[in-house]
Description:
The protein has 9 helices and 9 strands. The protein is α+β, with helices and mostly antiparallel strands. It has one domain: Aminopeptidase (3-Layer(aba) Sandwich). The strands form 2 sheets. The protein has a 7-stranded mixed beta sheet, with helices on both faces. A two-stranded antiparallel ribbon has the order 1-2.
Amino acid sequence: MASDILSTExxxxxxxxxxxxxxxxxxxxxxxxxxxxxxxxVPLDRFHISRSLARQLRKEQHQIKINHxxxxxxAGCAARDDTWISADIQRAYRRLFEIxxxxxxxVYDGTRLVGGVYGVSIGAAYFGESMFSCTTSASKIAxxxxxxxxxxxxxxxxxxxxxxxxxxxxxxxxxxxxTYLAALSVALSQPADFTAPAVPPRAQDIIQRNTQxx
Length: 214
């Protein structure tokens, strides 16, 4: 059964070995494990902040929170016509959230959640699972704050699983499975604390710390 496959122990061991689960669709009770030949990653020192994103960040019109509303974030990620996030997956990642292995980065416009991303953390590896955006720039803002936090917190690997044009525009690249597994092994052996950096940093500090601003 899906609930047995997605126990916290099996899930964490799968991530340590380079695999992650997906469902066929939101209503599916069947799950499958994925371990891509080519893996998407964001080099933490090569995140790309465009001029337009820098302008959005400097406005500081959004509020950033972490780990504030996991259920709303994963529901937002699943609220699309075609999704691999089933009810079983939502329950499994909530359990990981409760024991401190899942973290969210959330973007608010006033009291309204307009974007966010969630992912799994083990050691100094962060496995980005999914993100959503209700506005044009919310997901990019979430990723800018997330990458900055990962760097400050001592993370060494930001795994995005796959590459999309959206992620590629922000600096994501593809690496081979062997290269990924080698980087994963190093990251798993190192400590990192997602909650350690101050919340939230100033937008200008994020821009200045990022060497890829253009």
